[in-house]
Prior knowledge:
Layout: E1 15-19, H1 21-40, H2 47-65, E2 69-76, E3 79-81, E4 86-94, E5 102-107, E6 116-119, E7 122-123, E8 129-135, E9 141-153, E10 159-174, H3 178-181, H4 183-194, H5 196-203, E11 207-213, H6 225-231, E12 235-240, E13 246-252, H7 255-258, E14 260-261, E15 264-265, H8 266-283, E16 287-293, E17 297-300, H9 310-318, H10 329-339, E18 344-349, H11 355-368, E19 373-379, H12 382-389, H13 395-421, E20 424-428, H14 433-447
Parallel strand pairs: 3-10, 13-16, 13-18, 18-19, 19-20
Antiparallel strand pairs: 1-10, 2-4, 4-8, 5-6, 5-9, 7-8, 9-10, 11-12, 14-15, 16-17
Amino acid sequence: MPRLRVPWPVSWPTLAVYPTARAVLLLALTAPAGLLLASLAPQAWIVAPAAGAALLALVLLDALIAGPLRDLHLAMAEDAEVGQPVRLALTAALSGARATPMAALACDPRLADGGRATLPLALDDQGRWHGDMALLPTRRGTARLETLWLRWTGPVGLGHRQVRRPLAHTLRVWPDITPVRSPALQIFLRDAAFGLVARRIRGEGTEFEALADYEPGMDRRRIDWKSSARHGRLYAKEYETERNNQIVFAFDCGQAMAEPLAGLPRLDRAITAALTTAWVALKAQDRVAVYGFAARPLGLSPFVTAPRDFARLQRSAAGFDYHGEEPNFTFAMATLATRLQRRSLVVVFSDFTDPTSAELMIESLGRLMERHRVLFVVMADAELTALATGAPDDLDAMARTVTATALQRQRMLVLQRLRQMGVRVVEAAYDQIGTRLIDAYLGVKREGSLG
């Protein structure tokens, strides 16, 4: 984990002395005490200002006894994935601090709520203060670490020192590809290459490859009765699954997809599911590209043909920023259709709020279906479901339930229209959408409808 550059040495604008809350309280008490003393003994009025000055001197002396900052190191990675914690470690060497120091960090709001994070510090055996914390990126892009503050208090607790350091560090937040590295997916891909899944995919393709001995568990409809009768033993036909197909993952980067779902934007949930499926597709020797659009097309990446180039897909998907406008499906799908020179599987990630806003989407996907195979992926709205199924305890709750039920019904009508057009719809919760999409992709390959 690399260390961040922290400016050194400390100059006056970055090192300051402040009174603690205890000192401020004592200083505030000197005023009424002075008034009381002046009313009882007017000739002793000088005692109150003298006490205040003495208290200020104690604050300064206490801060000086706290000692200077000898060394400071801040370590953090340069890359992170959205929705995955990234560790940050702070080490400080202080000369005379008695109380536990406090550290605070000003950063990009996508790393911490409000753009501010605090680090708890603890003393180690070597007399150095250590602290670490996890920042959770909630959006992709380049996040900056702006400023670091470190404050430590003197032995009396009246004054403390504070160091302010500007930081020159940027954190690149990439799409989350944790599912690609998961053991479950690796086991699945291993079986797909060498085990039972390979036989299932190979046996349910469209291009005849060879005859093989029939084994229990095979589909009986694939038995070649003529060859079996000729050789006196059962033979089954094996088909080769199509390869070198073109898969395009199209992302709606508009307003609806920028809304958070369980803490992360829907767009980031979609990119994670798409990259997971893209990894499976590359392992199956298909060609994969990503495409983004909002009010206008945002670009189509070159087709990637090998797993070793998977990072290019990740970088291309990371470039799709969040947009606050409504997507232009007509422009986006027409542009994509002109860029595709052969029949492809187009996986569209989007969302909609009502049938009116979805009308142009349905029309555009219908035109795309004339030449290509289309998968439409939408994440189930758990909040809408909770409102629709909630108990109507009062009139406001009843109104929300009725409205949510109507929106759910409209949503089902739109998805039903897409299914009637021939679009394969994948709808699931955000944490299941990746698995469902992989199943849908493998189902399309078994059908052999891309050749």
